[in-house]
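Weekly structure sync, notes
Attendees: PL (lead), two postdocs, one rotation student
Agenda item 3: pending single-chain targets
PL asked that the sequence for the first pending target be pasted directly into the notes so everyone works from the same version. It is reproduced below exactly as submitted, 380 residues in total.
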Amino acid sequence: MAAMSAPPTNLFPFKSHLSYPTIRHCWRCHADRDPVRAASTSPRIPSSSPGLIFRSSSDATSVGFPVVKRHVTDVTERWLMWYNSGSSIGLATSNNGIHWEEMTGESILPSPDWWVFDNFRVVPSDVLIMSSDKLRLESAVYWMYYTGFTDEKVELPLDGGGVVCKSLPGLAISQDGQHWARIEGDHHTGALFDAGEDGEWDSLFIAGPKIVYHGNKDLRMYYHSFDVNSGSYAIGIARSIDGLRWVKLGKVLERGPIGSFDEAGVRNGHVIRDDKDGKYLMVYEGIGSDGRVSIGLAESANGLKTWRRCNAEPLLTGCLNGDGWDCEGVTAPCLVQLGKGEGWRIYYTGIGKEGGEGIGVAVCEGSELGTFVKWKGFQI
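Predicted structure, written out during the meeting:
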């Protein structure tokens, strides 16, 4: 299959500094799957599972790491959600962000090449939709930043031990949000950039690249790693003028004080710029001393190194019921601002017993960020 042609440059807000990058290959070139078929509805969610809105149509597959985008016109509302399913990435669609249909057919699969950074597992981190007000969503170009894993094991210097798979950040481009072409990064494995040198805080791996378009020639990437010097997870930042080549600027958020819900570290920070006042908001995964994960909130005036926690308590936690679908914790948050005073939503991964995962949502009404309540159904 031929590589995709270069997208029109007027789709890109940073067009003057963007040269069309090298395509490594298209995912569907090696995906042994049928063409995209009609969507399948996500399995029925029990009313006794507050927050839970999506799980895989296959009982054997857990889903998580949601990346959610909303597009509203005068007559339509469309939601897209990319998510991790096993070792691959899937896509679901919705007209309200609550009831989802799982797109069947091709998935984004790990690369078949032995030498690349993403041949074991791929997890979505963020999607930028490059379009203009004069173009429909269907005419947009999608940039997906994702975490690619190999099966190389990385040992974490934790009490009792800890092992993760080596990971680095990647980029793919699509013209429909479902069929993707990998972009060749500067690193020899195809990744956008490498982990840090020995002794640097991000020397073990790079994961969870989330992107904010700040302005012309100014994109910010927030990512996490495990800092061997502090013995905890931390979130850092990198900047770019074109979305392809990045310069690291160091850590922006570290573990909280002793006794806090995030004293063992922070990771998977998702940052957006508030439409109301321009400040930056970060929802992130906080790890407690007991290993339990919950979701916290931090803010910054400029999105760089002036982040502060908004509350001493987590914004969202797993249910206290030992049998609940997210009783073991809530992770990988994605913050969505609905606009025009409609409120906010946090989409997240819930972890249940035996490690099973699903995707949930919590809502906050009004233009100001306040208390989030797990979804329980439409109120009549």
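Discussion points:
- The chain has a mean pLDDT of 84.
- The two ends are 51 Å apart (CA to CA).
Action: rotation student to compare against the earlier draft before next sync.
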